[in-house]
Amino acid sequence: MATRAERRTEQERQRLMKEADKVGLELKWLQGESKAVDDEVWTEVVLIRHGETTWNDERRLQGQQDCPLNQLGVMQGRAVAEHLRAAYDSVHAIISSDLSRAYATAQTISAALGQPQVVTTPALRERSLGVLEGYTLSEARVQCPQATAALLHGTLSARIEGGGESTLDMCGRVCGAIDSLAAAYPGGRVLVVTHGGVISATHLLATGLSPPAKIVNCGTYTLRVATGVGRHWEIDSVAWQRDDYAYLKHVGFQQCAFGGGSKTG
Q1: CA–CA distance from 57 to each of 42, 217, 226, 241, 257 (Å)?
Q2: Over the stretch 192-247, which tens digit does the pLDDT of each residue have?
Q3: Is 137 left (phi over 0), alpha (psi -120 to 50) or beta?
Q4: 32 vs 60, 65, 227, CA distance in Å?
Q5: What pLDDT, in 10s, does the model give residues 45-82?
Q6: Regarding beta strands 42-49 and 220-226, do their DSSP bridges make them parallel or antiparallel, or are they unpaired?
């Protein structure tokens, strides 16, 4: 007999499958279940959230607003760059969101690894939050109650007023971007500097579930992508639950993080 947690997991996946089917979104864990992947060539994608910004510190909803790193964010970028330099003998590419908080973090990593070029793409931007961008959650509940409800309690297909995206909108562009970069570097290792919402969407696509732990500024999260027919994604969810981040301890990071007290991007 299934446990309560297993039933809840299955309900969450069924809800995602139903909504994804309406918009033709490809769910990556289903790809692996339906096709043989033993002979696949895998690309390792290391997802890195950008360093902290002033709006992160103030718990403001950033979305696609172009907020620069604060001083702590710069220090976090240096810390994760040194961590990655020690962890990996080879990196085949560094890809970044084109928003400055991600690009600045990526440039710091590039310099530490001796990687001369960072390739940017808007496909890896944070979720657009429409009219909510710039508000704290408490401000947003007063100023934009309907949009806030769509963010916090809406369906996966619910868009945020003011040109904001739904969760499924974001998942669609993230899915295409990661499949494309993995196909460009089959069997390689690619560093992707991006945002909390993008990393959360990646876990959702790969497992059918929300991430098991908060996504911290300059945290690293590994994804394996099959580049053949199956186009399966694979995540070690246990590794995503770690909360030590030893390489960040000497500089610090927000304990609320993305998916914690507020979703700030």
Answers
A1: 37, 11, 37, 23, 10
A2: 999 999 999 999 999 998 888 889 999 999 999 998 766 789 987 777 876 668 88
A3: alpha
A4: 37, 36, 12
A5: 999 999 999 999 999 999 999 999 999 999 999 999 99
A6: antiparallel
Bridge pairing between strands 189-194 and 42-49? parallel
- Spatial contact of 44 and 189, defined as CB atoms under 8 Å apart: yes
Helices assigned H by DSSP within 126-195: 137-143, 145-153, 167-184
Contact in structure between 191 and 181 (CB atoms under 8 Å): no
State the Cα torsion 47-50-52-54 to the nearest 10°: -140
Cα–Cα distance for residue pair 71/17, rounded to 1 Å: 42
User: Annotated active-site positions, please?
Assistant: 50, 126
| Cβ–Cβ under 8 Å, residues 190 and 91 | yes
- Sorted by sequence, the CB contacts under 8 Å of residue 83 that are 6+ apart come out as 220, 247
Which ranges of 25-136 would DSSP assign to H, the alpha helix?
Answer: 28-34, 54-57, 71-87, 100-113
Find out whether 49 and 215 touch, Cβ atoms under 8 Å. Answer: yes
Question: Distances from the Cα of 249 to the Cαs of 7, 38, 72, 79, 255, in angstroms?
Answer: 37, 39, 12, 9, 12
In this prediction the pTM is: 0.91
